[in-house]
Amino acid sequence: MTLAAAVALGAVVGPAQVGARAIEMLVARYHHPIWTKCASVTFVAIGVSALWAGLPYIPVALAFYGAGIGLESIARGTLPLALFGPSCYAKLMGRLAMPSLIAQAAAPSVAALLLEHSGAQGMLAALASLALANLSLALLLGWLIMRRRSAVQIG
After folding, report:
1. Whether the Cβ atoms of residue 67 and residue 16 lie closer than 8 Å to each other
2. Number of domains in the chain
3. pTM (2 decimals)?
């Protein structure tokens, strides 16, 4: 792949992030923030899994990934607020941010080790596995939230 092609592909992610955020702003009032989170992790899982599988539509895979990352930035703030309310929100956000910040700090070293020992396909396989695990956890959380909401409405 040429440098120009790589740069062009990298440029797909940013507009996808912005586009997903713009669409979310239009529809956010119609659904619970857990569904933004579920959409986010689904899009990331689709994007990373498509790259790992070697599908020929790399720009589409990167657009899904970018859209997922864009939605994640919204879900990261709105979901805790919806679940726990505004009291102690700042303290809760700090506690929730710590594991993510540690993972972000460790990511370059872990990625380098994965690349060295497993190659690009091994690293993409690991990322796809983590994305699918994240999707499973988000769907479980969505199911628990909706179950709780149903119980409150019935009771």
Report:
1. yes
2. 1
3. 0.88
